[in-house]
Design brief:
The structure holds two protein chains of two kinds.
Chain A (H helix, E strand, L loop, with lengths): L1 E2 L2 E2 H10 L7 E3 L4 H11 L6 E4 L3 E4 L19 E2 L2 H10 L5 E5 L2 E2 L5 E2 L2 E2 L8 E2 L6 H7 L2 E6 L24 H4 L7 E6 L2 E5 L6 E6 L5 H6 L11 E2 L5 H11 L8
Parallel strand pairs in A: 3-4, 3-7, 7-12, 12-13, 15-16
Antiparallel strand pairs in A: 1-2, 4-5, 5-6, 8-9, 10-11, 13-14, 14-15
Helix pairs in contact in A: 1-2, 2-7
Chain B lengths: L7 H5 L7 E4 L9 H9 L5 E4 L5 H8 L3 E6 L12 H8 L4 E4 L2 H13 L3 E4 L6 H4 L5 H6 L9 E5 L2 E10 L3 E11 L5 E2 L7 H6 L1 E11 L2 H5 L14 E4 L17 H11 L2 H13 L4 H7 L2 H8 L19
Parallel strand pairs in B: 1-2, 1-8, 2-3, 3-4, 8-10, 10-11
Antiparallel strand pairs in B: 5-7, 6-7, 8-9
Helix pairs in contact in B: 2-3, 3-4, 10-11
Chain lengths: 256, 323
């Protein structure tokens, strides 16, 4: 789907990149998070530190990895070790500023399901790969950015399985569960950008993508979505698009 | 010198039906695939696998009917295939038993086993269904001593009751099989690039089998001992298997093979086509050399060899492979 001079994937990658501040430690996953992190590193956040759970820290990617364990994730890395080092000393110890997540279902408190569809996970109608590091990233990053396809069935009031805890039941339930930090700060989807109310922790619409309306996004969401004050998502700049297309993903591995 | 060099087929034959096994690597790199194909040819059954993020090593074993139960965090080839096709079908058709963890919790479990302690405390999982729900029933756990009687346990820190941690049980396996870049005949191992959880997986296993790209002299690896992470006395067998991880990558040696991965993923979606894949690339070839010939021989392998400046193949096409 093309919106004017850029595609939806490009808009999402740019929107995700803008969530990364310069100097931050970024725990990235495969796909759009890699596009966003590489773009941020080449634009407004040259000092952001990209980490992959398979064992590399402070990567300077030259080619898009197909996996977080790709040999390409070794390029320019400051440290290469294993999962234990990254999860224990970097993530659990509280050194990750922003983690990227995605999943098949997201609920109104930003809880994510990437395990299976169906009420009984022992007999699912559809099985997904499973948590990988997502549960850990969701529990232990200082904040998380969620990337998702926006369809009504993918945004139910309650997910079939909580693979990666968001704000759980809202309010202070996340802290009460014993999680020491973190929680989702934003959800970047194919239709808009959602954030969370500071107290209730309920998702609200912050912006809708160009060509859509706030109501259209709410209509495609499986729970009531507060659209008060929602504005249009800022378009990518020509400079961002140029870097994304010519430097980050000239092979069109993830860009559409 | 006490040599541990063992022919691949002989090493694979050491693994009996029903064995507990973990394989090294992570999604798209350094899986001991040649060893996995041997296990399929040997028609091993009821294997019990432990892993964090395996990929096609598990998927083809599951599809070939070799696996009874798995404990894992993830099974897919990431951007090459966002779900392992045979893993998905096996779950949806009730053909496999499994338990879900996260990558950190599986690695913590391997670490506890490697350290000789019964469990590891961690701050992850709280609030999730990975903690709250179980895929294995209490009866299934009780009936099999190879499975921990409990999936996890939440406790307050004895040092500060306000502090809550999750304990995850140690893993001990009968076998760990790694594919690495270099090893010596007596079992010194050199992993280049990301180590994944290979070290912890090796050190919580009774028998460690290492397949490697190159056998090198001891003095080569003893020159930089800080880069050798597994004590040689923990390694029982060393198999020399160049391209032993194909179609997956080995940093500094070769890249993944997108064409072969596509052939696998396309085939594995469908029972009949999966059987054809198995027949052509596993059953019809008797040795690893025959496998390498079947996937395209020297021409294909040369196209995957790593550029020494990168450790991978910078010009490798990953998408739009036609033509």
């Amino acid at each position: 789907m093309t919106t004017g001079a850029y595609t939806l994937t490009e808009l999402m990658a740019v929107t995700a990149a803008r969530e990364i501040q310069d100097g931050e430690v970024v725990f990235a996953g495969t796909g759009l998070p890699m596009l966003g992190a590489m773009l941020a590193q080449r634009t407004h956040a040259p000092q952001c530190c990209i980490i992959f759970e398979a064992g590399t820290v402070a990567c300077q990617l030259a080619h898009l990895p197909m996996s977080v364990g790709d040999p390409r994730a070794m390029r320019g890395a400051a440290v290469a070790a294993g999962l234990s080092e990254v999860f224990s000393y970097v993530l659990q110890a509280g050194r990750v500023d922003v983690g990227f997540l995605s999943g098949a279902q997201i609920d109104r408190f930003g809880n994510i399901n990437s395990t299976s569809i169906g009420a009984d996970p022992r007999h699912p109608s559809v099985r997904f790969p499973g948590s990988g590091g997502s549960c850990d990233i969701a529990c232990l990053s200082k904040r998380t950015v969620i990337i998702a396809l926006h369809e009504k069935r993918r945004f139910p009031a309650k997910t079939d399985y909580v693979t990666s805890p968001g704000w759980l039941e809202g309010g202070d339930s996340r802290i009460k569960a014993g999680l020491v930090r973190g929680g989702p700060s934003v959800v970047v989807t194919t239709k808009g950008v959602m954030r969370f109310h500071p107290d209730s922790k309920e998702m609200y619409l912050a912006s809708y993508h160009p060509g859509l309306t706030a109501q259209a996004v709410a209509d495609d969401t499986g729970f009531p979505l507060d659209t008060t004050g929602a504005t249009e998502t800022p378009a990518p700049t020509p400079a961002e698009l140029h870097i994304l297309r010519e430097v980050v993903d000239p092979e069109r591995v993830f860009l559409k | 010198m006490n040599t541990k060099i063992t022919p691949l087929a002989q090493a694979a034959a050491l693994i009996p039906d029903g064995a507990t096994v973990s394989f090294g690597g992570f999604t798209t790199q350094r899986h001991p695939m040649a060893f996995v194909y041997e296990l399929i040819r040997l028609k091993r059954r009821n294997l019990y696998l432990f892993g964090h993020s395996p990929g096609g090593d598990w998927d083809i074993l599951i599809g070939a009917g070799c696996v009874k139960r798995v404990e894992l965090a993830y099974e897919a080839d990431e951007a090459f295939a966002t779900i392992g096709p045979r893993w998905r079908l096996a779950v949806q058709h009730g053909q496999i038993e499994w338990e879900d963890y996260s990558n950190f919790s599986m690695v913590a479990r391997f670490t506890a086993g490697a350290m000789g302690i019964p469990f590891m405390p961690m701050r992850s999982l709280l609030g999730s269904d990975v903690l709250a729900r179980q895929a294995l029933t209490a009866e299934q756990r009780a009936a099999d001593p190879r499975t921990s009687p409990l999936k996890s346990h939440v406790m307050q820190s004895p040092f500060d009751p306000r502090d809550r941690v999750v304990l995850v049980p140690a893993i001990h396996t009968e076998f760990a099989v790694l594919h690495v870049q270099k090893a010596t005949a007596n079992g010194i191992v050199r992993i280049e690039g990301q180590t994944f959880a290979d070290v912890q997986q090796a050190l919580c296993a009774d028998t460690v089998i290492v397949t490697c790209e190159e056998i090198v002299d001891e003095d080569v690896l003893r020159r930089e001992p800080e880069r050798n992470l597994i004590p040689y006395f923990a390694v029982k067998h060393v198999c020399h298997v160049p391209f032993g991880a194909h179609p997956y990558a080995v940093f500094n040696y070769y890249d993944y093979d997108p064409r072969q991965l596509k052939a696998y993923h396309d085939g594995a979606e469908d029972d009949a086509r999966f059987r054809q894949y198995l027949q052509r690339f596993v059953y019809a070839v008797k040795t690893h050399d025959e496998y390498l010939a079947a996937i395209g021989g020297t021409a294909r392998l040369d196209s995957l060899k790593a550029d020494p400046g990168y450790g991978y193949r910078p010009d490798l096409k990953r998408r739009r492979l036609e033509g």
